[in-house]
Amino acid sequence: MSDEEEHGAPAPAPRRRRPATVREAKALAHPLRVRILRLCLHRELTNRELADRLDTAPGTVLYHVRQLVAAGLLVAEPVRTGAGGALEKPYRATGESWWLDGSQPPGGTDGSAPVSAFQQELAEAGPESVRAFARFALHLSDEQVAELDRRILAVLDEYVATDHQRRDQPLYGGAFILHRPAE
Fold first, then answer.
1. pTM of the predicted structure, to 2 decimals
2. Among residues 37, 172, 171, 168, which one has the least CA distance to residue 95?
3. 108: alpha, beta or left, given left = phi > 0 and alpha = psi -120 to 50?
4. Nearest CA-CA partner of 44 in 31, 32, 56, 53
């Protein structure tokens, strides 16, 4: 029996990568915003919780949260009552940033914000957090670089698209970076 027969509706089409809009690219151009998205991907957090976790002033965090909300990468969840009885507004990442093609950031951004954010996250987690590591040097044409990127992202896309099925497992973060070394 197909999914359509079993559930009465067609299965959703697999997600596809798309170019980022200028607004999305600009929202992703700051390492603090990239970290906010990662922190809010698996757990709703308030501005105060984000500020505490990022050791940053709440006003600074709010500015960046608003940029992410305006770009559609972060959404406000329903207001809740906090431990002390105060009303709190939590935020949750939409997950949309994963599906944006990050190979050529538009809007004049240089693409270093995710690298900086990852370095900060790794430093916070400590060296004992590393579970897998591969360092390599390859001679590749531009076409081969594009093919390597496409193939690695296809594997990662499969895992991202089905992550909701593994929420009971430990959370891991990572980055794939291909760069030209200084000569």
1. 0.79
2. 37
3. left
4. 53
Q: For residue range 90-121, what is the model confidence (pLDDT) as tens digits? A: 999 999 988 888 644 445 556 788 888 889 99
H helices of the chain, in order, are: 3-7, 22-27, 31-41, 47-54, 58-70, 113-125, 142-161
Sign of the CA dihedral 108, 115, 53, 68? Answer: positive
Tell me how far apart the alpha carbons of residues 176 and 70 are, in angstroms, rounded to a whole number.
27
In the block, residue with structure tokens 């939590």: 90
Burial class (CB in 10 A: 0-12, 13-18, 19+), 174: exposed
Phi, psi angle pair for 29, to nearest 5°: -90, 5
